[in-house]
Protein 1
Amino acid sequence: MLVTLLRRLMQSAFVVVAMSVIVFFGVHIVGDPVWLLVNPQADQADIEATIRALGLDRPIHEQYFHFVRGALAGDFGKSFTFGESALKVILQRMPATLELAIAAVVMAIIIGIPLGLYAGLKPQSPISKTIMAGSIVGFSLPTFWVGLMLIMVFAVMLGWLPSTGRGPTATYFGITSSAFTLEGLRHLMLPAINLALLKVSLVIRLTRAGTMEAVHQDYIKFARAKGLAPRRIVGVHLLKNILIPVVTVLGLEFGNLVAFSVVTETIFAWPGMGKLLINAIQSLDRPIVVAYLIMIVLLFVFINLVVDLLYSVLDPRVRLSDRAA
Amino acid sequence: MSRLVTEGPAPAEDKADVPPREETPLARFWSEYRESPLAVAALLLVAVLIVLALVAPYIVPQNPYDLAQVDVLDSRLPPGTKSSNGKYTHWLGTDGAGRDLLSAMLYGLRISLAVGVMSGFIAMALGAAVGLLASYAGGRTEAAIMRLVDLQLSFPAILLALMLIAVLGKGVDKIIIALVTVQWAYYARTVRGTALVEQRKDYVEAARGLGLSHSRIVLKHILPNCLPPLIVVGTVQTAHAISLEATLSFLGVGLPQTEPSLGLLISNGFEYMLSGKYWISFFPGIVLLVTIVVINLVGDRLRDVLNPRLKR
């Protein structure tokens, strides 16, 4: 077990290092950020001063080692456009993104599980077929297009919900979130639905497949024979067993949600990390781009590591094949 | 030879003796495919979209990128209005720069399809080559390649594409590079899986016994048998590529304004949406949506027809 853990840790570390090299060198090939930063009337001396201040005059491998030393201490350099530490700028926007992703997961569960249960319990009914057809459409719709339609219908035509920004936030237990104020919740609705849509389809399919498999198993038949109310059979016995794969997959998909929030945040002007990344790519703000990408690679490597380790704890076959290899 | 021509009514009794006509694989495939009317309709729509994209410059009422034909005074006209010079009726309205939306959309469809199909083909060729290499070489080469594939597939496509765009910058060629890089792994995994099964079969053993060269065995014997799953993945991935390109263009990090794909048209219309001028984003979006959905439907049907496990 310890060997597996160490080996996986080393692989993860290798991925992070490789990614940092690719990202850092790649980002430094593109464009010259100096022209965006200096005043158009600046003379040669000013330009050179700016280049020196940003450390852009040194050879690129030196810049990389400087970057790595800083990154290990949590310093990714100063953002060109904000003039603050890149990591700080990103961390400031992280709660908004996490809030959106968590709201989307909650929504996927609230909408997806009941629909999936229904489709699994009554697979032949027309409503179930509609649900399944809808989930196929949900898979193929581009996220940004759905976002636009949500704005068009609910914000422009009906005027029910706001379409931009995060709304007022409130702080409880050290967590600042717009979910704590009514106005903030209204702002959260549309972006969360938009981001949740892909995952709703996924949850529907997982729940349906699990339900269809479980209803034929002995423990459900036994519960029926005992004369338990159908509501209790479905709500307690069935649900408990099908939730495990659903929760596992949703955990795995969390990183995916954070990545896709780039799209949703841009549409709804949500002040999160994703919007920051898009702006940074357009304004060639290298420290922000590099710091964001490194952070997201870390997040993914971490999620994959945890899942892999959990599997090898839960499933002895994985461990055995690992030893044989 | 005229004596051989029998006169009078055709010999009906001979018909039973004629062996049933040998069915070509293509005919068999088509007879199975058309059992789903929805899939046939989807295929027809795909064909229509491709033809529209190909002939777009000849059928559009206006060349939307010829400044002599576009009048800024005509900008943001609602659908069905006549243009100020009375030449055209803008059936789907005009966009922010006064371009006829229908014309702009057909041009956009052309670019979207071209980028999607081209990146799909390059990724397919690259992925198939790598997948075949992995399965045929085996050992460390295979382990290294599949490790890379797994690693890449554990990152969401959009993130990888953004990462590459951040590194490469904008442009048609760069978008294609990004899309190919994002997609090759799907093809590699598919081909390697099929090729592993195929190369254990007797016909490959026979080809080896005949002393054929490695490249001949791989390209002429194994590859053709890997094609069915490759075609299925290719269809679905092309739809993905179109969707991804549209998303990147919408975010403003995809194609440049000089190559307006459907995604870019939608993006341009976004700023007018809040003031109720829905059509600038809405119609290109519908076309994009239809394109993606019909390609997916065709892919779904291909999967059912080409999957030997589902054969009746």
Note: The radius of gyration of chain A is 24 Å.
Protein 2
Amino acid sequence: MKDLFAVIMLSGIYGLLSASFFVAMDAVDVAFTEASVGAGISTLLMLVAITMTGRTEHPVRHKPVLALAVVIVTGSLLIYGTLDMPYFGSAQAPVHQHVAPRYINDSMQEVGVPNIVTSVLASYRGFDTFGEVVVIFTAGMGVLALLSVVRRPRDVDDVASLNKSMHEEHLILRIVAKILIPFILLFALYVQFHGDYGPGGGFQAGVIFAAAIILYTMIFGMSTARRVINQSLIQLFAAIGVLVYGSVGVISLLDGKHFLDYSALSADPVAGQHLGILLIELGVGITVASVMIIIFFNFAGRQNDQQNKENNES
Amino acid sequence: MDSVLNISSTVFLLIGSFLCISGGVGILRFPDFYTRMHAVGVTETLATAMILIGLMLQNPDAIVILKLMIILLMALFVSPTASHALASAAVHNNLKPVLDKNKNKESVNSSNP
């Protein structure tokens, strides 16, 4: 398929469908993440990316036969590897024998959070999650390093007048967005702090929060959004999220416990776990939201600059 | 009481499913972008409302009904707006509707200057 727009739409549909089969398999947290990240924000970011690259793929000069052969060989090796796997849903499978019984039986006493997924993600596997947050942070920094543009103030004024003429037409969109954005932000906070009790958590909340800001940017224009959201502040926030997560770990280290052992945070181990999970989910949420906003702003801002340049040249 | 709830919820769900399917048929059968979008945009809003109402009648729990009502409100706001945005984007990019040439020549000229 040569049309990149259609490819992106297909990947979004794939994300939504896989979210629904995660729901069918009772993995609500994963489904929530897939729906918000896979179908929502990554589709959006890729759409912003094709406004920069152009809509159609360049014609391929090399023969795709070699690539096809590699894919077939790798695929058949992978399928050969799965032949050894235990039967689907088998109770004897290692995944059900290894650590899962302990999570299911003891997490209520050890962590005291009703949603086991959150206690596994944030407490038992806190170090892995820390790695994920650092990966997201690194992605944001990479985008900043590659695409960041220093804009002169004169350009901003030009963009502002352009935006004004462009966005006066979209009255219905603007009014509905104005009504909805506060509720989207509120829902993001609900997802953030309800993660202990139901599906949700920092990743989903951060993405939803960023989506509200991106909606605002798309409808009210880049320059208005730049006035609302200070770029250097949002970069600071991205770092603060990782810092909060890391310093929770360091506190427990200083207390003579293991890294990210939250029982150090309070006299009562379970209360300490609660506080620790709350804090690190907050860190995750802040970092994810800030990085998504940074990525979007840099992609979209660059496209605005390109347009301005073309307008000036012509 | 229970059977009344069950039957009415089933009726709502069936109407919703029928509207979904008719929207799907419309998107395949209609000739151009605007009519296709019309088919989906109109039926989808009503179908969502019908299915959500059907689900509300299925469930006696107050908090579930409240959540479904919030989703319904959200859908009623979002889906007409999305259709509007789609259509206005199409007009903005000069996508011409497929019209019966003899009858509607005047209106084409006036609506797309």
Note: Chain B touches chain A at residues 74, 77-78, 81, 84-85, 88 (CB under 8 Å).
